[in-house]
Amino acid sequence: MDRFNPTRFNADEWADLILEAGARFLLITTKHHDGFCLWDTNLTDFKVTRTPFKRDVIGELAEALHNHGLKLHFYYSLLDWTHPAYRRDWPTYVTYYQRQLHELLTRYSPVDGVLFDGYWPRTLFEGDVELEYFPPRGPFDLSGTYNLIHELQPDAVVVNNHHIKPLHGEDYQIWELDFPGCNTTGFNTTQIGEKPTAVWWNLNSGWSYQPENHRLKPPGEIVRTLRRCHAGKSTFILNIGPRPWGDVHPDEQSTLRKIGQSLRELHLL
User: pTM for this structure?
Assistant: First the structure.
């Protein structure tokens, strides 16, 4: 908390890069499994505006994306390693996360989609640490949550990265590092529901910035993956991990621009 200060972050530069890459929306992490919030929530001090940076990253991105004509989707982890109610007072935690979603859906409108993560009903957790920090202590009230989203943002699409067929209230089904119906990772599902599908890929070797493990996929490989997704009528979502300074690695910027150039040359934009 006392070191987080991404002074190079510029929401308009991010929006420009998204357009150059040929993308149509940004899916941004609002809260990951560690519980840290990238917006100025009223419900916890474990948030970006309590760091030396002090600025509301989600707010700045929402404004920039809307000004550039881009869609805004939120990633939100249902799992929370640091909120004490997650492990000790389940009804209080469910109320907490639903109130956070209410903030996101009303402050940064329009919101075009919400992706949930951290709920994996088929996963078997083992060991004291996993059993302490991972399994939910009760139902997440997903139907109530989905109703909340559809009430506040009727045009927003909802998905849950739970690796099972879509539940009632979900608008599409997503595969993580796999194609629809495939399970090469061992944690996806081979069952395809009746909803539209999406593929969630990464540009680098991992989801986050890892200087010791920096291995970008070539632009041509990404374009081929995207075309395979489109042939199967799936949406392709490409992950990048910004650096601690708030900018996108120059290598990733270059690759994204080359991807956009290829898509234009192939008349896919």
Answer: 0.97
